[in-house]
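User: My advisor, Dr. K., asked me to get a structural model of this assembly before our group meeting. I'm new to this, so sorry if the format is off. These are the inputs:
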Amino acid sequence: MKYLTAALTISFASLLFADHHTEQTTKKLYADTPVIPGSTYTVHDTTRPQPRKVESTGAVTISAPSDALVLFDGTDTKAWNGDWRVEEGILIASPGALTTKEHFRDCQIHLEFRVPAGREIMGQKGGNSGIFIMGKYEIQVGESHTNVTYPDGQAGAVYGQTPPLVNPATPQGEWQSYDIIFKAPVSKDGKVVTPAEVTVLFNGVAVQAGFRIQGPTKHKTTTSYPENHPEKGPIFLQWHKDPIEYRNIWVRPLGKYDQ
Ligand code: MG
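Assistant: The format is fine. Below is the predicted structure of the whole assembly, which you can bring to the meeting.
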């Protein structure tokens, strides 16, 4: 009887959490994706370990330093091309990407985001956006407090390349923050000789620490650098059919030492 009760409890729990764990099955969501170079896991591997959960206090709000270019301060989208709504000081993801008019290379970026409360989230659906640096490299924006997806596609991941080191996400409906230090790839004779590098603090917690980006973000496949990589590129925010909210976005181009 004891065993029967336990078995019933487990199957009830599986039913209850079936939605959250649809992607988190023993079967891989994408069965035929290639192995990511430098790793033993395939692209979007659902069997990859889920990053350890870390309790954080949520968004770390940092006002724009005096030398920052303010991209969004609650008023308008004049720093951007694209047509996203602004309501009550909040920028809301809307059809089409939102792309900065200015282009950047090495830079520090701050942004705050919120996945609206009450939205149904399932894996990559319902709470998805992203910040693309140089228009090519996505740091995933999503709901990762309770929602489970493939680790290289959760919030704070370099999408399709590496999961975050840990998972400091706070509940859906709360503001969260990214502070990103990005170093652009270096080219010589039209070929990338030094890959891009990214460090990300998610709610003040390091989730990427000098990760060497393998190439432009791709879905379901590995990536590499194309020839003639541009010197600079825009930042764009991804429209993935979910009205993710943003506030307090700024960028500081990084110079060289002794300049
Ligand atoms: Mg995304």
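One thing worth pointing out at the meeting: The pocket of magnesium ion is lined by residues 128-130, 138, 140, 238, 240 (CB under 6 Å).

User: Perfect, thanks a lot.
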